[in-house]
Prior knowledge:
With about 350 residues, the protein is an all-alpha fold. The chain has one domain (about 5-175, about 200-335). It is built from 15 helices and two strands. The protein has a two-stranded antiparallel sheet with strand order 1-2. The model has no long low-confidence stretch (mean pLDDT about 85).
Amino acid sequence: MDSSIVLFLVQDAVINGAIYALVAVALLLVFAVTRVILVPQGEFVAFSALTLAALQAGRAPATTWLLLALGVLTFLSVAWRGRQKFRARQYALAALSNVGLPLILVLVARSVAALQLGLAANIVVTIALIAPMGPMIYRLAFEPLAEASVLVLLIAAFGVHFSLTGLGLAFFGPEGVRTPALIETNFTLGELLVTGQSLAVVLTTLALLALLGWFFRATLFGKALRACASNRLGARLVGVSTSLSGRIAFGVAALIGAVSGVLVGALSTVYYDSGFLIGLKGFIAAIIAGLVSYPLAGLASLGVALLEAFSSFWASAYKEAIVFAAIIPVLVWRSLFAGHVEEEEE
């Protein structure tokens, strides 16, 4: 192995590590606020890439119907749970936010696909279609189970994952897609060829992580999420709505997944079920970080990506097994040396 190969593998690891870092941060956020291990985070990534590819091809993406179906189900769920206390105004607001907004997005997406307004417009529409799915999924699947144990929430998360995977096959089909690069220009850095897409991935990841840091420090909603992550019961006692915090956390996670899908689509072929492996590697990084530390999750993501890159060179047939096995010593160490923590009672 010469230096040029090492540089190429490190570059590949940095690019993949940036994607895994975004997924890991989303998983950490959702778990800290809601105690849900968001197994379907990868579906947001895959659906985003598939949506962008459809828009680039001039077709109305199937995501519009998926979003509309989720919206209708969410409205029915909210209306049923509030049937004893809702008034006409509250029903109208629920219908507008859960059904009216998806209908508007359906019309916008079809118009943008027909007019072929370019990559930037398609990216905006893609993110607008994917991001609302997060709060809808929370209200449908997890809000009714908010007081359940982590194990029950995990089982529900797997149920949502399998449901979205099946819906992805029904809506998008089995064919894989690729999307155009965000930056077409390439340049050399010594022996290394740096693609514009790799630069876009790293810069976008850094910008998004910086924006999240500002959101948590400077905004009221960000501080509410931090309060729920620190102590859900204490947050409720001081007036922070854990339900609203959960919806915001899922919305931010879906937004991160949508941006990740835009970045991933130009790097590799994406299928309806490709998000699971991406989400699983982000989950490994989050576990290494202890599901508590965002900076450590970023470093762990880079470590996972480096292990994957060098494993693909030395033992490509076993690279996935090697990456997944990396979690074993971490779990053994934590089981031996970490103290037992009782689940928070509410």
